[in-house]
Sequence to fold (97 residues):
Amino acid sequence: MEESPTFFDPTLFLLFGFMILIYFLMIRPENKRRKTHQEMLASLDLGNEVVTAGGILGKVSKISDQYIELSISDNTKIKVQKTSISTVLPKGTLKSI
Fold:
């Protein structure tokens, strides 16, 4: 006599439990981080002091769709991708460093 699998198979519950666990421990926090980063990029304005992913500190002098021009010293400006901005610093941070 073979038993046919029932709907209440414990391995299915275990599988669904792992899927829910992975969602709450890995996928959801990453989506949250991505959303806050996109909101930060959308709120960038001229004069903001920022840090790039490479550690370069500068003041935003020009904003386009994909690129940002940073003033890193008096006569030095560089262009970086918008997505490489990692943090917006409080005003006056660059002068205090």
